[in-house]
Amino acid sequence: VGGVLFNSDGKIGIGTETPEALLDINGRLIVRTPAAVDQTQESSNGITEVNSWWQSFTPGRNGVLASVDVRVNETNPNASGTLEIREGEGPFGSLLATQAFTDLPVGATQWASIPIDAPPALQAGQQYTFRFLNDHAFEGNTSDPYPGGILRGNPEADMAFRTFMAAPGVGIGRTPTNNTLEVAGSASKATAGDWLANSDRRIKTDVRTIEDALGKLDRVRLVSFEYTDDYKKTHPGVGDRRYLNVIAQEFARIFPDHVKGSGEYLPDGSEILQVDTYPLTIYTAAAIQQLRAEKDVELQALRAEKAAELRALRAEKDAEIESLRVRLTKLEDVIATLHQE
Asked: Where would I find the beta strands (DSSP E) of 73-219?
């Protein structure tokens, strides 16, 4: 009836006269009410291809969705389309933003970034959905680990993605991800100094003088290096020259509170670490004070030692002078006696 076939086994076929499952659909299925299925079509080789992939996610913090990375692989024949971000679970919630994308890399399994031109504001703990409308940019069969889509309901095939939530802030040459102000490349101002921070005694507690600054600094390895070609490709402001800094993983062992994630990721999915090297300034000043105090102690000891040596020398010389005076007096007495004779 109307292309629907009920066979003797109780199977239902839509668009096919030989249903092989309880419900066998040959062709497109469009669901008009919220559900986990959007659109599918049967290809000529019998593999289900998905025109509209979607998957829900819940951000862990407030912010704006700056960009989305999607895992692509060598089976992607076309890497262009449109990304939708919708409220709620599934592809039927209110549309928050759309982003056209082109030229995603194909030919190797890797992460591909889709920056959002008009980043939507998202709330921590609320559910949202990615929906990809494309020319089969993420198509594949069930053996593909990364084409994705909740449609399959298979964790090994579900779409692999990662989000970049930007904190409220300003990005110059980049989208801020973790800090109030983030700059791609170098920064400068007209004069030196005057980069101020609140440091009033009245806003501080548990104040402690820094000790053993030299010992702390001795553990820090200062290095010169060049950035990798992959990093320079994604950061045009990085030049082909040697830079000076520390290694974040090493620095974290000495100053753990001054190393954190940057909100940027390597191709393997691990987060790039960033460091605050300001402790080196404070500890260097403390080390100078420590050296000065140690030298003052040494100098005082040296002064005391030299003063003692000088007193001993003076006493010795005084004794010699007294001995000479006595001898001279005796000599004068002898000469006076001779004159009398």
From this structure: 81-87, 95-101, 110-115, 121-122, 128-134, 161-166, 170-172, 181-183
Q: What is the residue type of 324?
A: L
Residues 217-227 pLDDT 10s: 999 999 999 99
75: which 2 tokens? 């089976």
Helix and strand numbers (H, E) in the chain are: 4, 19
Give Cα 9 distance to the centre of its chain.
Answer: 59
- Torsion, CA 290, CA 295, CA 297, CA 303, rounded to 10: -170
> Is 244 in contact with 223 (CB distance < 8 Å)?
yes
Per residue in 24-71, pLDDT (tens digit) is: 666 545 433 333 333 333 333 333 334 456 778 888 777 788 888 777
CB-based contact 238:227 (threshold 8 Å): yes
Q: What one-character DSSP code corresponds to residue 8?
A: T
User: 21 burial class (0-12, 13-18, 19+ CB within 10 angstroms)?
Assistant: exposed
Q: Round to whole Å and give the CA distance between 36 and 121.
A: 25
Residues whose CB is less than 8 angstroms from the CB of residue 50 and which lie 6 or more positions away in sequence, other chains included:
39, 40, 136, 138, 139, 147, 149, 151
Residue 133's beta-bridge partner residues? 52, 82
Continuous H helices in the chain: 213-218, 229-234, 248-254, 278-340
Q: Is 46:55 a contact under the CB 8 Å cutoff?
A: no
